[in-house]
Automatic annotation (TrEMBL):
Pfam family, one: AA_permease_2
Topology of this chain in the membrane: Multi-pass membrane protein
InterPro entries: AA/rel_permease1, APC_superfamily
Keyword hit for Endoplasmic reticulum: no
UniProt name for this protein: Amino acid ABC transporter permease
Originating organism: Aureimonas glaciei
Subcellular location: Cell membrane
Length: 504
């Protein structure tokens, strides 16, 4: 049957959902680890590129602005996720608030984010591995494949194992950061090293040999230009609602896990932005192009003798995020597929382990394909230096659209569905969601202006165009009455006859 949105629904029998069953395991600390683990790699690599556009003060200011955006977002999803406790998460929120097209567009944005983000992280993992083992960067694609195989395998093998691994490596990652902070604090020289960036005649960053430069060498425009990099300090905390159907008590534990995770990340972000560039011999200028900033900090403090040990230690944060975002990638593809927005075969779960193995493998193959296209298009030498930045901005670009759509969904749900059960209510309310939208729009505008980022943005636009064309001509005629769809239809007041066409 077709509804007024131009979509056609099919009913699904018990067998359809039996092939797509999930199991429940996660409690509040598992959810906390999932959220923190997803983000923590951003405190090991990636954020530091912002020194080139804003200097130290620009990075700090951008981080504070982005923290406000994420507070507005996380409080919003902490309210929406227990009210709509479905694996669809962002897509589910937007589907209920804005209909099938709004749900699909939001889900698509999140899909790009969660397929590309593991690719970004594995490029940073590879940089650390190359530095530790002295490997030629030409062999990087082999390292990518090895890490994908290992961690896709762990995620497929079972939910309980996946969450236990996530908790352990997240705790280890935080311990590594705390150890670095304690090591760096006694020797830090903030003025000499953190403030060693000036502006050259061409407007680009230059090193100040004696340091003690301006906090804001590029002015307020530098703060705004640094917003896309500051996002990396918090990117993917919003993935937590994807675990709703695998949480023991999502209405109680989901808000707690989200907010505890956000508090943890804010503390860590302040410490790493302050201490990493303040280590003598490192500095903001060097970090502005470094693929392994934390390892550089350890080497400056303890010397090159322990490079292998400290490199392995520094890898933990990257591995934590890689593992947890592969989890999110699988659930995100699974939820859109189960509801028919993507081909339904993608949502079949493993008979024994009840994990969405087809979705995870498919997402990993797409991520690897994007990486290899960039690798061979640029050539191994240029790609090894540029691929992380290109992929990072593809992920951030998609994420900003996702945040805008989720914040709008929150506002619409508050206004149009005030009566649905809300176990948690955002203390920031609609103003917090409005701030999220404004900051996300500004971040997007600065991404588009930078020619170095525009290549990635164009490829995301192509991705969007192809997927929207698929949904317009194929997907919208094959939607399934999944839990998210049934909830949205019920609360929209529409009535569908029981004699719908069965799902295949």
């Amino acid at each position: 049957m077709q509804d007024s949105s131009g979509v056609t629904y099919k009913t699904a029998d018990a067998g359809y959902f039996e092939k797509r069953g999930l199991s429940r395991y996660a409690g509040v600390w598992s959810l906390w680890a999932l959220g923190v683990g997803a983000v923590i790699s951003g405190h090991f690599s990636g954020w530091n590129f912002g020194f080139a556009t804003g200097g130290w003060g620009g990075m700090l200011g951008a981080g504070m602005i982005i923290a406000v955006m994420y507070l507005g977002l996380t409080f919003s999803i902490a309210e929406m996720s227990p009210a709509l406790p479905h694996t669809g998460a962002a897509y589910s929120f937007a589907r209920t608030a804005m209909g099938p097209w709004g749900g699909f567009i939001t889900g698509l944005c999140e899909n790009v984010e969660y397929v590309i983000t593991p690719a970004v992280i594995v490029t940073f993992i590879t940089a650390y591995v190359n530095a530790i083992l002295g490997l030629d960067p030409a062999y990087s694609p082999i390292v990518w494949v090895i890490f994908y195989l290992i961690f896709i395998g762990l995620n497929i093998y079972g939910l309980e194992l996946s969450f236990k691994v996530t908790l352990v490596i997240t705790v280890i990652s935080l311990a590594v950061l705390v150890f670095f902070w304690i090591s760096a604090f006694p020797s830090m020289d903030f003025g000499r090293w953190a403030l060693n960036i000036g502006v050259g005649p061409d407007g680009a960053a230059v090193e100040l040999p004696e340091g003690n430069g301006s906090w804001f060498p590029f002015g307020f425009s530098g703060v705004l230009a640094t917003l896309p990099f500051a996002v990396w300090l918090f990117l993917a905390i919003e993935q937590l609602p994807l675990a709703a159907e695998e949480s023991v008590d999502p209405k109680r534990d989901m808000p707690r896990g989200i907010l505890l995770g956000m508090m943890t990340l804010m503390i860590s972000a302040v410490m790493i932005v302050l201490l990493n560039p303040s280590v003598p011999g490192v500095g903001s200028f060097h970090l502005s192009t470094s693929l392994e900033p934390l390892l550089d900090g350890f080497k400056a403090i303890y010397g090159d003798g322990g490079v292998v040990l400290f490199g392995l230690v520094a890898l933990t944060g990257l591995i934590a995020s890689f593992h947890t975002i592969l989890y999110a990638q699988g659930r995100q593809v699974y939820s859109l597929s189960r509801a028919g927005y993507f081909p339904t075969f993608l949502s079949v779960t493993h008979r024994t382990y009840k994990t969405p193995h087809v979705a995870m493998i498919s997402g990993a193959l797409v991520g690897l394909a994007v990486m290899l296209i960039i690798w061979f298009a640029l050539g191994a030498t240029d790609a090894s230096a540029a691929i992380g930045s290109i992929l990072l901005n593809m992920a951030v670009f998609a994420a900003m659209f996702s945040y805008i759509m989720q914040a709008i969904s929150f506002i619409m749900l508050r206004r149009n569905m005030p009566g649905i059960e809300r176990p948690f209510r955002s203390p920031l309310g609609i103003p917090g969601a409005v701030l999220t939208v404004i900051i996300a729009v500004v971040t997007l505008s600065y991404q588009v202006q930078d020619p170095n980022f525009f290549k990635g943005v164009v490829w995301v636009a192509v991705w969007f165009a192809v997927a929207i064309a698929y949904f317009a001509f194929v997907g919208r005629h094959k939607l399934i009455l999944s839990p998210e769809e049934e909830f949205a239809i019920e609360h929209s007041g529409k009535k569908f006859p029981s004699a719908l066409k069965p799902a295949e």
